[in-house]
Amino acid sequence: MRLRFVVPAVMRTGLAVAVAAATTLTAEAAAQDIEYPASFDRLLQDLSVLAHDSMEGRAPGTPGSARARVFLIESLKSIGAAPIGESYEHGFETANARAVNIIATVPGRDATKRYIVLTAHYDHQGVRGGVVFNGADDNASGVAAALAIARDVVASPLGATLVIALVDAEEEGLLGAKEFVAQPPIPLGQIALNVNLDMVSRTAGLLWAVGAHHTPALRPVIEEATANAPVTVRQGHDRAGAPEGANWTNSSDHAPFHQAGIPFVYFGVEDHADYHRPTDDFENIDPVEYVASVRTILTVMRALDEALR
Ligand SMILES: [Zn+2]
């Protein structure tokens, strides 16, 4: 499916530069005319870097993971998102490796301290049998989206203070998010909302917003903010026995926040043919779908920030 959308002329910029830099982007995609906010300039390029073979599938504790981390920390620095405390890196031990969460923050406008924590796991499944699992959708897409959103929020801050948590070891059982909640770098009681991004590029025209079943006040805000979105947003997958199928309440990094009583919205797509396969590659991502998805998530986040004040 191909999506068409427009943004105000002042926000338009060409994709040509990013496409030229993202050397693996397909010719078909490069030929498309995509419009997006200026803060999204690097979105596709960042995704292509994270999903590159040189990152070796970003398994915790590996040289590929360390390379990804260097890239992410340099990106956060250049964006102007500061660390909390002395370092962006918050290490912890798993059964198999030393894992590292990367945490940064962008101050909000409000005098009352409230936080929105934007999570996206940067780890994936590494190299198996000599084959790199690049995890382009899962979850280079969420991490590159988080960087683009951080850029936008630096340029135009939220009311709440944004915390960007690029967490590790999700694939081993949400370990980075669990660590964040167990050793919170900010008071948990001041977190108004967790927005979790995990697999946000392969929408095929449909993006799920999960979590309003647990916090009904979120539902009308999400509904209104997505009424004219460039991708269809459906709410659900947040309770047992729902007609849409599986309950995703505990399926990604929002779960530890939910278990700590923090409202969450998880954005993600249905499992697709390349899910957890070595073919989850940059080339298989439709840039138009991806940009539409990230623009929509940013719009919802800003609406929720206003609604939660
Ligand atoms: Zn994932």
Global mean pLDDT:
90
| Count of beta strands | 11
Any ligands, ions or cofactors bound here, and which? zinc ion
CATH class: Alpha Beta
* SS element count, helices: 9
Kindly report the CATH topology.
Answer: Aminopeptidase
Instruction: Report the CATH architecture.
Output: 3-Layer(aba) Sandwich
Instruction: Provide the number of structural domains.
Output: 1
Report the order of strands and helices: HHHHEEEEEEHEHEEHEHEH
What is the rounded Rg? 18 Å
- The backbone outline, from C-alpha atoms, is globular
Which percent bin holds the helix content?
A: 25-40%
Plain-language structure description:
This protein has helices at 16-21, 27-30, 43-50, 63-79, 136-155, 175-182, 218-225, 254-259, 287-307; strands spanning 82-83, 89-93, 98-106, 115-121, 127-128, 131-132, 161-167, 191-197, 206-210, 232-235, 264-268. It is of the alpha/beta class. The chain has a single domain, classed as Zn peptidases (Aminopeptidase, 3-Layer(aba) Sandwich). The strands form 2 sheets. Strands 1, 2, 3, 4, 7, 8, 9, 10 and 11 form a 9-stranded mixed sheet that branches. A two-stranded antiparallel ribbon has the order 5-6. α3 (43-50) runs antiparallel to α5 (136-155) and α4 (63-79) runs parallel beside α5 (136-155). The protein binds zinc ion. Zinc ion is lined by residues 121, 138-139, 170, 198-199.
